[in-house]
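Researcher: We're reviewing a set of sequences before deciding which ones to prioritize for further study. For each one, I'd like a predicted 3D structure that I can look through quickly. This is Aminoglycoside phosphotransferase domain-containing protein. If possible, include the structure in token form so it fits the rest of the review sheet.
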Amino acid sequence: MSSSGDAENEEFFRYSGGRWLWDEEKQLRDRYKRFNISELKNIAAKTVGSHACVSMIKLAEGGFNKVFRLMMDDGNVVIARIPNPNAGPSFRTTASEVATIDFARDILAVPVPKVLSWSGNANNPVESEYILMEEANGTPLHELWDGFELHDKLKIVDEIVALEKKLLSISFTRYGNLYYAADAFPGCEKAEIDGEALQSQRDETERRFAIGPVVDTNFWIHGRGGMKIDRGPWKHPEDYLKAIGLREIEWLRCHAAPKHGPGMFSDSAAQNTPSCHIALYEKFISVADALLPKKRDLVRSTLWHWDIRASNLFVRNGQITSVIDWQDVWAGPLFLQARHPHLIRYNGEVMLKLPPKYEGLADEAEKARIRAQVEKSLALWVYESETRKSNPILHELFHMPQWHLRRDAVNFAANTWERDIVPFRECLIRIVRHWNEITNETPCPISFTDEELEAHYRDAEGWNEQADFWDSLEHLVHRDGWTSNETYDQALELFAELREQGLQNLSGEERRAFEQQTRWASRANPKVL
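Model: Here's the predicted structure for Aminoglycoside phosphotransferase domain-containing protein, in token form for your review sheet.
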């Protein structure tokens, strides 16, 4: 066994960012990754011309990878990313991320830390796929944002608009994930720019890059990886939408089995009936063409960073100096990719200036709340105003009739068996209702009977109750059972109480099933205090 197996290094291998109330063993297994720490240090040191790595810390970990900071004896720093087993298809996930970063840096001129070395094959001295990168230039924005004056925040908003302008500057002739041409495998095609671009950009793109099948985990998880399904690349955006529906129909026919959850709520009959899901996916495929806007620019293949939040941006002197977290970025339809950046998203009442009563308020907490409301409103207003001027195609997209409904239908179509059938069905019902706003070219090809609508509304009532429950626990427990290390005992105690209440109120077979499914929260369980 390699030296990476030493017990003191377990902290590097395992997920330590939180706990799960149920299915924890599986969740931790999906995120547990052993690798040869000594060899990673050696390769990192050689990559930057240093003699040795003198320290290594776990910098961050998400659901799909771990990030480490390696300090060298001469002061050089290397950032190492190690993918978890659940990150996606081996080789392809890492290869696509590296190529995407390179394309963003070299072709789009986006400030992204440089990849120094990488391996998409675990058959190497590190015994794992890895990416070695430069450390991000600048200070993490999340460390500064709350202390910024308003004009500093609005300057960052302008920077985000400029960043999105770069992402919009190039589109492709195919929809899929980006790879290096040298790493192309069967199914990949030459990456070709569609529309206006410098000839040098066209030439370099075709020479260095390819577009191939997607690495989106929804095309690979729970047995999908072994299925012969269409993963792209696609020539037309509607083919991507139909591939989602066909993928799920095929999976439901082959793999659908009762799902595991907290057991605190009962699923609807439709949720556990594969034919009900299949019927909805068939309807989805029938309306796929109409969901997409007809204007070509709105569905062009665009490499889009959809997670623009403070933790993914680094700044210096009011400028964005680094953008990180490119793992999920692909060349997809702009209509589905673009969204208001998380950093400036605001759904409250818009207030663009302080009200006359502000100065007379004695309650400092209320004054702080009003200031925050004005700042959020102004950030959103500036973003939308600058977007209208600099990126008019985004402004048009954001104001397209039933834009959210169309997007939601596609987003909720992903894996309804493991997630939930109700939101997906709700979208399809609303599509029927608003069909004339979506298109007036053809009659709506799908419909729902009165009986189907009545059943849906019954299911939706229960779903809304569950949604309210989870919303009330938003800062304590996620829907998959994740909770922070600090709140684990509190969360487990809460569900133990709910279990006892349920057992008191149920009887017969219903009680027996509930008791069995919720044993993870039993006070007899050693995990429960």
